[in-house]
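SAMPLE LOG
Freezer: B-3
Tube label: C17
Construct: single chain, 223 aa
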Amino acid sequence: MKRVQIAPSILSADFSKLGEEIKDVDFHGADWIHVDVMDGHFVPNITIGSLVVRAIRPLTKVPLDVHLMIADPEKYVPEFIAAGADMISFHVEATPHVQRILHMIKSANVRAAVALTPATPLSTVEHILPDVDMILLMTVNPGFGGQVFIPQMVEKTAALRELLIRKHADHIDIEVDGGIAPETVGAIVHAGANLLVAGSSIFGKRDRKAAMEALRVACPVEI
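STRUCTURE (predicted):
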């Protein structure tokens, strides 16, 4: 079992004091800072761009996990690399040039990941495993924070972990994003996820230390 890590999603942070919010979760033990980038086209919402990533990069030494929920990600990946992203994930549904983008990211010494919406089959990543560092499984339909966890994603997570073991690619991280809370982490970690994106269950609480501790306590393994 890989060590499970927590990535608070700034989508649920108070943007009027974003720097303070990031420093708060950094101080209380965040392993990653998750940055959701939405374009109003691939998903029905607009959030932030590379300028915000560049602005927050100096505020924390915690690595930035940038999740591109955008169409034509190959056009914008260089901007996020230059802005200081430590890991970039993009959706396989958003581009026909998956391996080209993975190589673009990895050639810049940035960790490369692909993301799948709930209905996208695992077969879409089976032949690109040598090129990825992580696979992000959406456990809600992407586009908004605060959604309810889709329980069928536990089975999908388990199937992905089995696929990685079968392909001798178990070094690849499995990240889950959407509806992650103390009530859902036990099953999803037991299924094989090792990187948890949590938005409202952390930033929606006044005590962020207690919120992250609640996630850790709920896991079936020590993290």
